[in-house]
């Protein structure tokens, strides 16, 4: 482990003293890390004038692809090598945690429990103020004033779906389990548009969607597209070969006990 590792060239003048300080870097590393967790030297990189970093393979369980990084430095005109820092860094093949995703982007239907709150931001593009008009964006003060007036007058909802919010919901529903591409719809004998259990909606979404009201269907109480379908369609009929066989005629046992004993 004391052999000179490969050197990665930089635009700074080569510092042979720092690039050759493998043993010094290793000694500093072993002061903080168990020897069994340290592998061979992987090379050295000159970070700038009088600063270089030595890398060592990490053998610690659970850290495959990681490397120990030891940064060394020296003062101008001095040969004394000092230690700047010792850290553990991920390599190209390292197993690392996935990129952070804000909680509001991780929430999925069914994640909320009783008592959980999921606030909606004032500038959420899916919503627009119900009691405002015009295309000009509203300031935070204007939005707060509209909310207060709506609350004082008891006018109902402060915000309603924007065109973008409506289109996002429609696309999500159409692509989901209540749309035409669902496996149950692909094998359905007829579409929801002709089903007697379909409850029509009001508003712009009524042209594409309804709500299933068949208590025996998988989609009962859910939004379905008109071109969705399932086997519980109101007009579905079984073919003759699919109908259950009628029960056989009753058989009357006329065998007496005396006749039974003679058998």
CATH fold name of one domain: Nuclear Transport Factor 2, Chain: A
Overall average residue pLDDT: 82
How much helix is in the residues? 10-25%
Specify the biggest β-sheet: 5 strands, mixed
Strand order of the largest sheet: 1-2-3-4-5
Describe the structure.
The chain has about 260 residues and is an alpha+beta fold. Among the domains are: about 5-90, Nuclear Transport Factor 2, Chain: A (Roll); about 165-235, no CATH class. It is built from seven helices and ten strands. The strands form three sheets. The chain has a five-stranded mixed beta sheet, with helices on one face. Strands 8-9-10 form a three-stranded antiparallel beta sheet. The chain is flat and about 115 Å long. The termini are far apart.
What does this entry show, briefly?
This protein is α+β, with helices and mostly antiparallel strands.
């Amino acid at each position: 482990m004391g052999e000179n590792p490969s050197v990665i060239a930089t635009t700074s003048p080569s510092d042979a003293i720092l690039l050759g300080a493998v043993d010094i870097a290793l000694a500093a590393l072993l002061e903080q890390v168990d020897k069994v967790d340290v592998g061979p030297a992987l090379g050295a990189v000159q970070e700038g004038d009088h600063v270089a970093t030595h890398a060592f393979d990490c053998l610690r369980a659970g850290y495959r692809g990681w490397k120990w990084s030891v940064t060394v430095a020296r003062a101008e005109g001095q040969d004394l090598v000092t230690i700047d820092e010792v850290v553990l860094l991920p390599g190209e093949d390292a197993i690392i945690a996935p990129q952070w995703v804000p909680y509001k982007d991780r929430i999925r239907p069914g994640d909320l429990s009783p008592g959980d709150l999921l606030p909606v931001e004032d500038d959420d593009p899916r919503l627009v103020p119900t009691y405002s008009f015009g295309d000009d964006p509203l300031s935070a003060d204007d939005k707060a004033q509209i909310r207060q007036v709506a609350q004082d007058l008891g006018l109902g909802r402060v915000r309603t779906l924007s065109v973008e919010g409506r289109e996002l919901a429609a696309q999500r529903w159409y692509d989901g389990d209540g749309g035409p591409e669902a496996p149950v719809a692909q094998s359905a004998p007829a579409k929801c548009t002709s089903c007697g259990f379909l409850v029509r909606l009001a508003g712009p979404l009524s042209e594409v969607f309804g709500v299933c009201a068949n208590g025996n269907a998988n989609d009962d109480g859910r939004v379905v597209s008109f071109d969705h379908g399932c086997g519980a369609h109101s007009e579905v009929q079984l073919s003759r070969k699919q109908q259950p066989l009628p029960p056989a005629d009753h058989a009357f046992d006329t065998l007496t006990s005396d006749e039974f004993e003679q058998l």
